[in-house]
Amino acid sequence: MKYFLFECKKMLKKKSIWVAIILSVVAMAVFYFFNYSVAERVHKTRMLDLETSQIDFPEKLAKDRIALEEAKKAGDSAKVLDLERGISIYEKMLEEKKFQWNNIIDGNWAAISEKQYEQLNYFAVTSKSQNFPVHSIMDQHVSMFTVRASAEERRLVAEIGVEPFVQWDYYAPYHPTAYDNHDGKVLEMWELGTKRYGKQGFYFLYQIIPAFIIPFIILIGCFVFGNNVSSEATKKKRGLNLYAVLPLKRGQLFFSKYFSGLVFTVVFVVFILCVPLISSLFTSGVGSLQYPVLVYDGPIESPFGFESTILNEWTDEFHFITLGEYFSTVLLLTVVLIVFMFSIYYLLSLFF
Amino acid sequence: MAILAVHDLSKVYKSHQVLDNISLTIDAPGIWALVGPNGVGKTTFLNVVTNILPATSGSVDLMGKSNKDPSVFKEVAFLQDNTVLFDYLTGYDHLKYICDVQKIPKKRVNEVTEYVGMEGYLKKTVGNYSLGMKQHLLLAMALINEPKLLLLDEPLNGLDPTSAILMRGILLELAEKGTTILLSSHNLSEIDRVTKQILFLKDGKLTEVDMNKFENTYYEFALSNNELAHRILKERGYDVEIASDKTRIQLGNDQLDKVIDLIKGGEIQILDIQKEITGSEKLYKEIFSGVSS
């Protein structure tokens, strides 16, 4: 244990290690604040849209009502019908936008999510009854799996009543899934509309984890903490020779160095992942660990006793776990990945 | 039990035979100096003896145990060059760690730092140490476990005269207390002051020389009449030469008194006497003639 503590002390006293840690912390904090600023921009655009529509729509409605009166006086029944339909649509849209505006201002996210759930669920039910996906973007339909999963997600978000991810498309905020199969311009629109931004600390982590950010942080950890043997066996620095003339078994030395590097890498990775959480305390808070996370269950078992590997958007199943459960699994897998990557790096560094 | 026993030790490094079948036994305390020009393999020899570098063939026993057994370093210490120090740690950190490994009480840190005179900068990081300060720390690290066999690689490197005197004093004191010391050095005059037992390393071979056999003592007399003195001493069979108005004569330990009497008997006034002991340097030149040092 004393040897292990000595190796830890050495790491803590190295300036280069502190520089690497500080740079990593700054990089992660900048990443978080940049993402936060984009999310804020998306949110403000949405709020601006809601605000202006409450000025523009009543004006438009007033004009249309005057035109309707004139059309009625003129006896133009076709125009009357057209204007009446338009006024009805605008009134409904205004009502929805007022509903969103008021609830966002009040922080009543449950009501907004409930409304979004109703919309998505309507798509799901209607599609099922017609046996055809009803929602499409430029003739490319949104997969039924995505519609079903998105609806269920909104229902769960409404239940917990937390602020959801910021998303460009707030009318039908789809959860992108592996079942989406868009191309061309639609793919661009789909990606833009379904791109999610986590303002809260936990949501930001959930957003960046699929982008392989954790292996990248582990790799930095390996570079910083995995050279404690090779850096002491150079021509200019031969610290290993000091150990060689002490009553110390080489195995003891190796393991004290290996485990100190490993422990520091684990702490480093966890700490860097905590940076967005700490940063979020100055912005939107850490978020809720109850937020639903989609888990693919794949195809249901066929009557013939084997499972099909072909994706079926109508029947394939899914379920949701909480963000807390998701992070527990991620943390466990991260530790396993650190042990694996660090060990490989450490062994390679002994020979190269 | 031999303190140091080297048997048929060879080391080949990149097809170059650095050590060639060396055998050496030291079985009584004392100071031995390992001498040779740069690149001859002095550090390699010490590294192989301490198993920092593996030997190509042969074996080494330290204090009766194989050098491959790390427990030998409970009784053996090796002062290496300062590249083994960690710049970002303090001198205290180094010494405390050795105490932990050697399982000796921490109070020994204060004792040894006081002994080598580094109390003033013990808590400073080694990166801020001068060459001499680093050498003091290395010495403290080597002495902290009170070794019975002490190996030192160029211990006088970077030391100012005061420190060199201190180092010499420490080595002589340790040897007196029964520590066996093997040191490598270029500083022949310092070696002459601490030991007469020299190990010359040349072409991978070790030659052990007792300098007592090769030591010559010369006296240089400044006299009122050099010519007369030269004649008188020559008649008595002394080997005399005159150089720079001084009479130079090689004498044994008990001959000085007689020579002074002879000079006085010739009514010659003695103005000054200087003693010069030569040995290692002369022998070094003979052994390594043609080798740059």
Question: Biggest sheet of chain B, strands in spatial order?
Answer: 6-7-8-3-9-10
Strand-pairing-aware structural class of chain A = mainly alpha
**Order of SSEs of chain A, N→C?**
HHHHEEHEHEHHHHEEH
Total strand segments of chain B? 14
- Order of helical and strand elements of chain B: EEEHEEEHHHEHEHEEHEHEEHEH
Biggest sheet layout of chain B:
6 strands, mixed
User: Residue-averaged pLDDT of chain B, rounded?
Assistant: 86
Overall tally of domains of chain A: 2
What is the radius of gyration of chain B? Answer: 23 Å
Overview of the structural elements:
The complex is a heterodimer of chains A (352) and B (293). Chain A has 352 residues and is mostly helical. Chain A has a two-stranded antiparallel sheet. Chain A has a two-stranded antiparallel sheet with strand order 3-4. In chain A, strands 5-6 form a two-stranded antiparallel ribbon. Chain A is elongated. Chain B folds into two domains: 208 residues, P-loop containing nucleotide triphosphate hydrolases (Rossmann fold), CATH 3.40.50; 68 residues, YebC, transcriptional regulation domain (Alpha-Beta Plaits), CATH 3.30.70. Helix content of chain B is 33%, strand content 30%. In chain B, strand 9 and strand 10 form a beta hairpin. Chain B is globular and about 70 Å long. The chains are: A mainly alpha (352), B alpha/beta (293). At the A-B interface, helix 1 and helix 9 of A face strand 6 and helix 2 of B. Chain A: This is ABC transporter permease.
